[in-house]
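quick one, 214 residues, struct below
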Amino acid sequence: MTAHRKLPKGPHSLSRDEVAGTQRARLVDAVLENVGARGYLGTTVGHITATAGVSRTSFYQQFTDKQDAFLAAYRVLSNDFIDQGVAVAAAAPDPLAAVAACGDFLVDYVHRRPTAVRAVLLEIFALGDAGLQAREEVLRAGEAVFDRTVLWLRSTEPALPAPPPFTARAVVAATIELITQAIWQATEDAYDQAREAVRHVWLLGLFGHQSLTR
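---
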């Protein structure tokens, strides 16, 4: 993605803020590319700046260090993924269609950007407590999406009881595990299986408790 964000050669009319924003976006892409391919510990600031095509001075104008850059990139990708997923769901005619559409979106997104998603899902643990805190923020955002889906579903089926506590966390955690397995296996079958399994997990979270209350 960094190739599409390079500044035009020669004189240009971009403001200083626009230049800084473009450089930051390229650095974010470069962080995800390198951390996903090399691992967090194997990635250096030099790798990042070389991939982004910016100077070390520009890097340190944007971030304090490698960890700061990775946390920023982690949040950018996670927020982008969640925002796009919510938009896909909002366009669906009903909750069941939203689950199917989001399952397709999720797996297709991962399929398109496996290296970046690998960085987010696996390498965040290399940051210790800081990484765990960032991951917790993303888990809570995912749980909020599940909770909103539950409210939408219950607005169409008022008799449906609310899921028991921790269902949202279980669904989000299982979804992450399924995605991780697809990236690790990196086959079309793995992605197809993940697509079906993610749908099943979400439907089980939304409806599975119903049979337990009867």
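The longest helix spans residues 129-156.
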